[in-house]
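hey can u check if this looks right to u? its 475 residues, i copy pasted from the old doc so theres a chance i mangled smth
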Amino acid sequence: MVKKAVSERPAEPPSICEVPKDLIEGNKGAYTPKVVGIGLLLDDSWRTSTSMVRLERYKWCCVRKLVMGRHPDPASWSREVHEPLLGKCFDLMVGLVPQIRASYSSVASDTSSEDVAIKMLLDSCFVLHRLLKHAGKGKGNNDYDDDDWNQQLGRCWVWGTVKRDLLLLSNQVPFFVLQALFKQLGNDRGTGDILVNCGLQLLSSLRPGRLHNAPIICGDVHHLLHLFYLSIDLPPRDWEPSNTKTRGIRSNLSRPPVKRRPPNSKPAHDSISRELLAVPEAELTWWVPCAKELEEAGVRIRARRYGAKSFLDVRFRRRRGILEIPPLELFDYSVPLFRNLIAFEQTYPSTPGRITAYAIFMDCLLKTPQDVRLLHQSGVLLNHMNGQRGETAMGFFSSLCAEAHTSADRNYLAGVMDQVLKYQKRKWPRWRAALVSGYFTNPWVTTSVVAAVILLTMTVLQSFYAVYGYYKPSK
């Protein structure tokens, strides 16, 4: 049944690709695993290196623990019971080799099916063990509790680095392999939902924003990075361009709350591109002034703390001139995280490209340390990165956009940018902002202005009554 289900999957472009060289240049460390390497794009020299041999052995320990289930003690290994199950798992991997190869952009031609099966068995068992162990700990279950925090690499807290390694584009295993292996190991009920929930729990600490409530369909997930991408992306039905040029697309974005998609159907964002293609590219906006210039033009930037489904959920309240951006926290690990998310969008055409569009939008806003300070004071940007606060935040988004390419019809913020530019050109908001900035910045200045207005009013009234009494004296 598993093989039949996999064989019915629609033909799709590879979802696990090598990072383009122009993105890697000068930033190789952001795409290279620090602790654990998995998948077929990993060079064999990595697996056989001195520092990784112990971890490769640990992968075999994960295989043993998963095969033995609730009795991971090596003394409990039974040749009659456990070896047949191990053989079935290996045969399953061999049967999935064609689909596995199709999931990767390139696999060495001299790699045999047996080698692919062994690598997938080891790497998939390692990932499964991490998912189940984390979920088990979250529920107070110690079945997967082992003393492996520092035994393998001689350092504590290493699994935080492992989690970040599991979100590298070239360091992935297909999700359908995890699902098939998990089912083969005797987990028949709710296999997909369990793995999706375990993955979301494992990666929740790295998520840059709150999780939306839209369900994630297991059949839509290609790998862990893609699962993470879906968890931070906007739900399809919530994506609605504000621009009148692109209004009316919402009906194409809604999808029914079903568990599986028809085999030949396409994701909703394919229809987005077709609708936006009707709009001339020259009319779609790809630029907004920096935060300081917007403030001078009367645009107020606020943190959107309520109602946002993702940190990508930016909106502009046109009547009040308020640009609402959900808060975003930046840490040192945010650099490789966002780089790999953008690399995924750059290599997999079926993504809506919202991370790239968001990075370009934020890069427009952050051009000087004053812009960073303004967004920090408004609660939009919370920078926890090492280094100078303004420089790291500016360099963060600038470097993300350096070699990222996308088309104007994929800019989900085109409507917001267009409305901001139109509002910025209005004179009255600019005059009002100058008045507030010059005379109402603090209570003392405000008090002085009010006192001056009162004094001026009294002087005018006194002069009026003096003139009035001169020309019309009382009888």
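The beta strands are 300-303, 315-317, 322-325, 328-330, 381-383.
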